[in-house]
Amino acid sequence: MPAQTQGYFTEENSADVVVGQIADTTEPRLAKVIEAVTRHLHAAVKEIEPTQEEWLAAIMFLTKTGQMSDDWRQEFILLSDIFGVSMLVDAINNRKPSGASESTVLGPFHVPDVPELPMGSNICLDGKGHPMLIKGRILNTEGQPIEGTKIDVWQTNDDGFYDVQQKGIQPDFNLRGVFRTGADGTYTFWGAKPRFYPIPDDGPVGKLLGSLGRHPYRPAHLHYILEAEGYETLITHIFDPDDEYINSDAVFGVKESLLAKFDLIEVPDRIKEEGAEGPFYEVVHDFVLAPEA
Amino acid sequence: MPAQTQGYFTEENSADVVVGQIADTTEPRLAKVIEAVTRHLHAAVKEIEPTQEEWLAAIMFLTKTGQMSDDWRQEFILLSDIFGVSMLVDAINNRKPSGASESTVLGPFHVPDVPELPMGSNICLDGKGHPMLIKGRILNTEGQPIEGTKIDVWQTNDDGFYDVQQKGIQPDFNLRGVFRTGADGTYTFWGAKPRFYPIPDDGPVGKLLGSLGRHPYRPAHLHYILEAEGYETLITHIFDPDDEYINSDAVFGVKESLLAKFDLIEVPDRIKEEGAEGPFYEVVHDFVLAPEA
């Protein structure tokens, strides 16, 4: 135990006194993290100057956030999401070289071991919504196609729900698929135009959003995980730039470079060429993978 | 809903983007608090640069802290205590003019409606430990005695437990009392020498303390609430300066001015004079109350 060389507690030296109690034998990374947390926490309290009642309200908010969580619901992750912290941690851990596609949050709806499908397959198994053709190329930062990229995609259906949120209502693996690029690095598949949807907002986090005049919606997007040997795995979304919530994603997942173009194709020749039954949306989007560090 | 004038999320502008979503209609104090929390939180994350695994470990720690809490146990208050935040909030809300006695945390063991006793009473009802005579004066900042001060005191017994922690073992109201000063502002009562004791350490907070090489103990102290008309109510402790944990209170409650003197009195004349049966401890401590703002 170190001597409390900072002296006794005062408003001025509060963080020093607390940090001074961390034993020298503490695992260095933990010591560094707790010191930083302590200093920023004390700085925040000194700026805010909470009353005792406000401090107790904060304690009760955090308590309820923990108590709302279980095996199926993680309210503290939601809290991190709506404060932009999940996105910040993602950004810090996924700094990309110039020209490479940017990452965004994984989200809670990824499913492992989705069946691999031939290019051009339709992953929309419930037949709902506007048909959508999604295609593009997987490239390296030199603009060369990457062969053998595993493309894992998932999205909501036209009601704004993922299959796993509606088991027994949506077909299994609805709007999920795994594809693998050939030598030309291209990909193509059919889905349905995704919909905006709310994060769970019936808990303390939803109540806080409401108090801040914020809505719980995420703008429509498609999720991607792109894996290729010799490249950094990319976890990202592409977004519908015309979604009404595109400038106010409840979890701050939108980045400029992740805006795709969702074009409504009504030209009869194109409809015929693609074998569609009528007008459809088309999204053409290339991804650039960073080389493995 | 304000336009997201800060643009889309980047690592650099992350806090601005999040703060930019707070609606103009938000209650001003809440808006200010959430803005400050957001900015300090993002600054902390940028300094720490947590890995995804570390971030998830923090989420799980907070979740368990909430889930450990119930009507009897408040693990988030313990967390606030061991980070010195409870003391900091106390300090901010109890800035005293020069010469006035300082405050410290209330703690969870105060009991309302304790019977008022005549000066000189013995509040040690279980007969355990070293007898202790506590006396002093309640003064204003001009050094004048304050008549009619209500003195509410409580302390652990010789085993380091408050009566409410050992219902059925300790007598009701053991080592608690309310006294009222006369014209001379003096107080005097008998208790027992208090003992150091641990904060509850069988939860996530105790585990964190252990990881930091910190112990869970609070040095021996007596609690006081002093109330007098025309003066600010003072919630404080006085501490035994010879306690082995005096320089490392787990909740940082010790302030320089709260160190009392615990003298062992063995002189036969004094023992006889005070009507004691043998050697006893004596604590003489004056309190100075600040005028009401």
Describe this entry's structure for a reader:
The structure is a homodimer of 293-residue chains. Chain A has 293 residues and is α+β, with helices and mostly antiparallel strands. Chain A has two domains: 1-49, no CATH class; 85-289, Sandwich (Protocatechuate 3,4-Dioxygenase, subunit A). In chain A, 25% of the residues lie in helices and 19% in strands. Chain A is built from seven helices and eleven strands. Chain A has helices spanning 14-19, 28-48, 52-67, 75-82, 85-93, 204-211, 268-273, and strands spanning 131-140, 150-155, 176-180, 186-192, 197-198, 217-218, 221-227, 234-239, 263-265, 280-284, 287-289. In chain A, strands 1, 4, 9, 10 and 11 form a five-stranded mixed beta sheet that branches. The radius of gyration of chain A is 24 Å and the shape is elongated. The two termini of chain A are 41 Å apart. At the A-B interface, helix 1, helix 2, helix 3, helix 4 and helix 5 of A face helix 1, helix 2, helix 3, helix 4 and helix 5 of B. Chains A, B: Its cofactor is Fe(3+). Chains A, B: Belongs to the intradiol ring-cleavage dioxygenase family.
Give the tags.
Catechol_dOase_N (chains A, B), 293 residues, homodimer, alpha+beta, dioxygenase (chains A, B), Protocatechuate 3,4-Dioxygenase, subunit A, Intradiol_dOase_C (chains A, B), elongated, four-stranded antiparallel β-sheet
The termini of chain A sit apart by 41 Å
> By helix and strand content of chain A, what is the structural category?
alpha+beta
Shape of chain A: elongated
Count of extended strands of chain A = 11
Supply the CATH class of the largest domain in chain A: Mainly Beta
The CATH homologous superfamily of the largest domain in chain A is named Aromatic compound dioxygenase
What CATH architecture label of the largest domain in chain A applies?
A: Sandwich
Strand percentage of chain A, roughly? 15-25%
C-alpha Rg of chain A (nearest Å): 24 Å
User: SSE string of chain A, helix = H, strand = E?
Assistant: HHHHHEEEEEHEEEEHEE
User: Strand count, sense and closure of the main sheet of chain A?
Assistant: 5 strands, mixed
The low-confidence parts of chain A are none
Q: For the residues shown, what is the average pLDDT of chain A?
A: 95
CATH topology of the largest domain in chain A: Protocatechuate 3,4-Dioxygenase, subunit A
Largest interface: A-B, 79 and 79 residues
What is the overall number of helices of chain A?
Answer: 7
Question: What kind of oligomer do you see?
Answer: homodimer
Number of structural units classed as domains of chain A: 2
What portion of residues of chain A is helical? 25-40%
Protein name (chains A, B): Catechol 1,2-dioxygenase
Pfam family, one (chains A, B): Dioxygenase_N
Domain Intradiol ring-cleavage dioxygenases (chains A, B): 134-162
GO molecular function (chains A, B): catechol 1,2-dioxygenase activity; ferric iron binding
